[in-house]
Amino acid sequence: MGSDFANDVSACRWRLGGGARSIGRHRFNFIGNGLRKHRLLELDDEGGAAVVESVAAMLLLLVLVLGVIQVAFFLYSRNVVRASAHEGARAALELGRTPEEASLVAERTVRRAVGGVVGDMEVRTETRSVDGTSRISVFVRAEISGFGPFPFPAEMVSIAHVSRPTR
């Protein structure tokens, strides 16, 4: 009866998966000639590796997200500088403003849209008369200060031209 019972228990453990060995046996590797080496002395425990890898991945993701935000803000600032030159030129053409007023319109447009991010800004207006038409050019140069994980200042330059018949 004893051997049948042991075979039944062994077969049951085999079907349930992995229970055929004794509890303590998995801790030892056999080197040979009956010598055993204790596995707990080896450095193959990776218990805290998941936490470290998660923190590293989160930091990388944070830097990437902040970099994308920085690029988006840079592109927005570039578009504002371009639009302000066109606004100044449009004010000179459609509203009949003087070139000085066109410069003020362009500068106010940049200051209102991007505020303190623009450091050094230069707005110039030139007027030329050729063959009965006057050509007004609005030149805007602005330095955008950097922020974020990779702060780098950038200089934006935009020129807009409009023509109107001379009165």
Distance linking N and C termini: 122 Å
Order of helices and strands: HEEHHEEE
The poorly predicted ranges are none
The class by helix and strand makeup works out as alpha+beta
Count every beta strand, where a strand is a DSSP E run of 2 or more residues.
5
Q: Helix share of residues?
A: 40-55%
- Integer-rounded radius of gyration: 37 Å
Tell me the fraction of residues in β-strands, as a range. Answer: 25-35%
Number of domains: 1
Number of helices: 3
Strand order of the largest sheet: 3-4-5
Instruction: Categorize the overall geometry.
Output: rod-shaped
Largest sheet, in brief, is: 3 strands, antiparallel
Query: What's the mean pLDDT score?
Result: 77
What does this structure look like?
There is one protein chain. By secondary structure, this protein is α+β, with helices and mostly antiparallel strands. The protein has one domain (49-165). The protein contains 3 helices and 5 strands. It has helices at residues 2-16, 49-94, 99-114, and strands at 28-32, 35-38, 118-130, 133-144, 154-165. The strands form 2 sheets. The chain has a 3-stranded antiparallel sheet, with helices on one face. It has a two-stranded antiparallel sheet with strand order 1-2. Strand 1 and strand 2 (35-38) form a beta hairpin. Helix 2 (49-94) runs antiparallel to helix 3.
